[in-house]
Amino acid sequence: MNISEFLNGLIIGFIAASPIGAVAVMCIQRTISRGFWSGLFIGMGSAIGDFFYAIIAGFGISIISDFLTEHRTILGIAGGILMMVFGYKIFITNPIKQMREQQSPKYKNKFFNDFAASFALTISNPLTIIMFGGLFGISGAVSKETSFYNTILTLSGVIIGALTWWTLLVSVVNIYRKKIRLRNIFWINKITGACVFIFGISVIIMVTLFKDKL
């Protein structure tokens, strides 16, 4: 086993997941209002979305890559609208109701909803494939000369690196969760919802006004 290929992927996955965006803000909010597992499922959804694009960039699946690049404006607008919808839902959500839901037998179904929402937001941003292409190129982890086996090792590192970042983020937030008062959670919901909504607007503006430069 070539450990260097795996480590390169680990670093790339960690770096790709770490920028603070709409999903990270949602992850922090969910961890505070719903707990560790809800936040972790948000992170897992994003990590799987990143992994999807890493596979395309790593193996150079040109048909899918060309389709995503060609339709990046439409996908970007769809992603921006999704962010605005999620932001609005977070903004109007009552944190007391969220905490009561944790006691319900149906609460586990919310984990899948969190995962799906995060995955949808991540997968709706086709520019992620460009990011992975750049990271692979800069690090030299994946190129035309890289063997199938080494590419698999790199991609394995990517998904583990991404999951490591989200686990660390959720764990740190969860440590301080119990110290946050209910009134503070109310305002965290409002601020998070507003931030995610603004992220959505900014994505739509970026993909429509600057589509020729992306």
What does this structure look like?
This protein is an all-alpha fold. 81% of the residues lie in helices and 0% in strands. The protein has ten helices and no strands. α1 (3-17) packs across α9 and α2 runs antiparallel to α3 (36-59). The termini are far apart. The model has no long low-confidence stretch (mean pLDDT 80).
Give a summary of the structure in a few sentences:
By secondary structure, the chain is mainly α. The chain has helices at 3-17, 22-34, 36-59, 62-70, 72-92, 95-101, 109-123, 128-139, 148-177, 182-209. 81% of the residues lie in helices and 0% in strands.
Name some characteristics of this structure:
0% strand, mainly alpha, 214 residues, globular, 81% helix
Question: Layout of SSEs?
Answer:
Layout lengths: L2 H15 L4 H13 L1 H24 L2 H9 L1 H21 L2 H7 L7 H15 L4 H12 L8 H30 L4 H28 L5
Helix pairs in contact: 1-9, 2-3, 2-9, 2-10, 3-7, 3-8, 3-9, 5-7, 5-10
Task: State the helix count.
Answer: 10
Computed Rg:
18 Å
Helix content: over 70%
- Main structural class: mainly alpha
Strand content: under 5%
Tell me, briefly, the overall form.
globular
- Major β-sheet annotation: none
Order of helices and strands: HHHHHHHHHH
